[in-house]
Design brief:
The chain contains four helices and four strands. The chain has about 150 residues and is of the alpha/beta class. The chain has a single domain, classed as Response regulator (Rossmann fold, 3-Layer(aba) Sandwich). The protein has a four-stranded parallel sheet with strand order 2-1-3-4, with helices on both faces. Strand 1, helix 1 and strand 2 form a beta-alpha-beta unit. Helix 1 packs across helix 4 and helix 2 packs across helix 4. The protein is globular and about 45 Å long. It starts with 9 loop residues before the first strand and ends in an 8-residue tail after the last helix. The mean pLDDT is about 90.
């Protein structure tokens, strides 16, 4: 069992459609913990790539333009130390998937920015809020500290 601040070897992030929240979380984890944590993401249902995700993730140096959403069933691996679900339906699926495995499952309730309305800038603002919330949570959970000199 990994405690807060302890870095797991392999993490799976899961959400509803693997188009917004879970790929954001996976990319941020890779950015913050390069070559330290093996990270994948998936969803309950298969979604479509989201251009707002690409835009807000490029702002922090992450290129998600090649991400293709996949479901739990399409995930071709196991052996994760930790599954973090970001939506209720993903949490239920994660618990079901791991019930016979020694895998820790955490639920991080995360707003769905696709529900945002208004101007392009207002919608982007919602996506940024989710990105920043995930980044803060990842840093805290895995005990991120800035590297000296950068």
């Amino acid at each position: 069992m990994t405690r807060p601040g302890q870095v797991p070897g392999a993490v799976l992030f899961a959400c509803g459609m693997n188009a917004v929240r879970s790929p954001m979380a996976a990319a941020l984890t890779r950015l913050l913990f390069p070559q330290r944590i093996y990270v994948k993401s998936c969803g309950v249902r298969e979604g479509e790539p989201d251009p707002f995700v690409d835009a807000v993730m490029q702002e922090v140096g992450c290129d998600l333009s090649r991400h293709r959403p996949k479901t739990f069933e399409q995930l071709d691996e196991s052996g994760f130390d930790l599954v973090i679900s970001l939506a209720p339906e993903a949490h239920h699926k994660a618990l079901e998937m791991t019930r016979t495995e020694a895998v820790e499952v955490e639920y991080w309730p995360t707003p769905d920015p696709t529900l945002a309305t208004g101007s392009r800038e207002q919608i982007l603002s919602s996506y940024r809020e989710v990105r920043d919330l995930l980044q803060t949570r990842i840093k805290k959970r895995f005990g991120w500290t800035p590297t000296p000199g950068g």
